[in-house]
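Here we describe the complex-level prediction in full. Unlike the single-chain runs in Section 2.1, the two entities below were treated as one system.
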Amino acid sequence: MTKGSKIPNPTIERLALYSRPLEALIESGTPIVSSERLAALCGVNPAQVRKDLAYFGEFGVRGVGYDAQDLLREIKRILSTDREWTLCIVGMGNLGRSLVENENFRKRGYLFFAAFDSDTKKIGIRLPCGLTIEPARKIRELVRELKIEIGVITTPAHEAQRVTDLLLDAGVKAILNFAPIQVWTPECSIVENVDLSVKLENLVYHLERLYKSEKSA
Amino acid sequence: MTKGSKIPNPTIERLALYSRPLEALIESGTPIVSSERLAALCGVNPAQVRKDLAYFGEFGVRGVGYDAQDLLREIKRILSTDREWTLCIVGMGNLGRSLVENENFRKRGYLFFAAFDSDTKKIGIRLPCGLTIEPARKIRELVRELKIEIGVITTPAHEAQRVTDLLLDAGVKAILNFAPIQVWTPECSIVENVDLSVKLENLVYHLERLYKSEKSA
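The structure predicted for the assembly as a whole is:
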């Protein structure tokens, strides 16, 4: 989905995963974490943790573990999550509303600065997060004014590509698309298409295998 | 996250991805698709498509392509998405409501048979999909009565593990967890933890690289 990266995407996704239990360990006052412990907390194997972290040079001390604070700081630096990002969202149905109120997004520095919809019945509604739903025709103006970097799309499928084009034209550089259709962007931008039903397909594949192994046992 | 599979998870996830444009191609009357075309439609490289499909034996004809109908049927058989699955969902906030109404879930055979919440203000509400929100204390009874196989969790973080235990105890075999915390299940069950903010971390990593390449250009 993304272009020109040397570190594999699955590693990048796992680095983000590793940061979750690290935050919890630091909050609970644990200074050192072993690759085994971190791996168990994330549901991956320890060799995978060591391999992923090795992409970024030397971390930790053999036989002791990683300094949790250092490791988290380094992961955030690598992922560029050590700063705040400005987001807007287009499509204020239930999914849009759940994302804009998501406490984890805010905690990690992903800040929604504008919310858009084309439905006149929704425009003007004040959301619990403090934003007011703006009409889609103001995308261009507000993206520029608020220096929005990332656009999140939660529209119906048939509107997603048009909204993508609008956002990019206004100056957004990256799109996270939840509409159930792949959207396309030129080479000079980043797009990630998220299809929530794909997660279920992965799940039922393994569930079917579980049923079969139970039957043959 | 899942146990005992021979085919790598990324391949399984890509098979689900491949099925999306195949559905569209078949609807538009295209009988044959090349690995190049399919790869372009999914944003992966053609060698990856061929490699993924090779896990399942011989498909397609060299230099011609794949029969779209055959390929889709075979992918659905492999993923066990050629039958219907019974789901329930716990946590009827905005995310829960968006998933339960998701047209793509229904189209692909993921059928929600029950929706639960512990908030007395939500219990009894009739949803657009036709379900009525049931109290969480009825999980055990309804999971058994309706033969629910998969539980989807969209509760706040602090309730997710308790709800997971309740669902498994009632007979659910697989959990798709959207709460912002990892939940744990015994070996005899399947769990997939979905963290939506991980997708953003992947995105900003690539966005930061894009900014750097623009600066140095």
